[in-house]
Every structure is written in structure tokens, then in C-alpha cells.
Amino acid sequence: MKKLILEYQNKWANGIVEIGKTKNNLEESVSVTTKFINELYDFENGNVQFKPTKASEKQFRNDFESALSYFIGNNTDFSEDSGFALNPWVNVEFKNESINVYGDIGMAMGNYFFTNAESKITKVEYTFGYIKSDDNRILINLHHSSLPYTP
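The chain above was modelled as a monomer; its predicted structure follows.
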């Protein structure tokens, strides 16, 4: 399972970069992001505990529509969303502090680093929970990320 988590972290990182490439085409953004969410998150089996980095007014995004809005914006119900994944990011790198596996459930915590087109890197703290599906995929059922505390 740990190997699958590392594989899915790469899929997630590559997916964020791919979404950013669709920045100027809303129809393509919706299509690519819908596929990304459906392949990596467990919304088909209910709510995902999702607290994205740059959400403060409606900070919890526990259903598909609110997650889609966070990643690509364009939803009047979430006016604060400008489309986090449309930045665009040119690279995302996970640095795991720890990965724990308990049967078909895994948890990973650490930092991930988002690099923009000007090579500026943003460090973000994350905790992801994963659950193994009946078809041996793993899906994110918990996603919490935040910017590091600065006094």
C-alpha cells in the first residue's frame, strides 16, 4: 500500500500540473479536473474530508462540486475560488514526513512544494488519507493542507 500511496502522490502532482495547462480553456479545465477528481478522490462513495489550502470563507469542500470549484474556480457559490490548480504550477513535489498503513487505509503527512512559472516555490503542509478500493486502486478520503505558521 505504501508503494501505491507514493504512486498516487505522483499522479496527484502531475494532475495539478496538467490542470494548470488548461488555464485558458474552461471546457477543457472542467474535463481534465473532473477526471482528476474522479480518479484520485473517493467522492463516489460519499463525502471526502477536504480542507484545501486557500479556502477560508467556505473552508471545507466535502463534495465533488466544491472540490471542482477549488481547483478551477468559476462557481458563484464559492466566490473566493480563483482556481488553485490554474495558477499554473509547473511542478509539485511531495516530501513525506511519514506514511502509516493500517490494512486498506493509509495516511501520509508532510510538505508539498508547488513551483510556479517564475520558479517561485510555495511550501504547503498536508495530510492525506487513502482507502483501497475493491478494484485495488487507492482513493483520497481525507485531504487537509495549509500554509505553514509564520509568527
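The chain has three helices and five strands.
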